Amino acid sequence: MYVLFEGIDTCGKSTQIRLIAAEHPEAIITREPGGTRFGEKAREILLEAKLQSKRAELLLFLADRAEHYEEIVRPNRDKLLISDRGFLSGIGYALANGGVSLEELIALNHFALQGDWPDHIIFFETDEATLRRRLGEKSADGIEERGIDYLLTVQEKMKEALPKLAIPTLILDARESVETIHQKIVTYLGI
How far is CA 2 from the centre of its chain? Predict the structure, then answer.
């Protein structure tokens, strides 16, 4: 079962993934960007280099996604495979940056993933106050430096894309307790 944990920065994805990994040591845990050697280099560029071209940023995400699919997803499709972010985030960031349509992004991601969509998406939705508080507790990377309004726009763009994807999705309120969220995920996935 291939599951994407999606949402903007500081929404709680990584915390929930750590809880599942502790309960299911057999699970394959990965992330985008960064789940492969190429992905680590791409992540460094994306978070630190502050690319001027948003098209270059999109293409780097797509290149990482294609490599990640080939190296991590396809060989582990029969296992519990959880990715900290994936193509939905890519779509949200690209739409927030402008210059490309949702239909084009779906087609590009379909190409990068060889048409192999995840089985489920776990989507963490947060609000401005929670985002502001959590971002204040850490140092900002290059994408977080774009600001709270930008991140909330990315979140809205991800939510707008979900119905067009027709992938079973659990939408969670990231303001709820860690334990409540965890129980909802475990129940939803049946793990």
Answer: 13
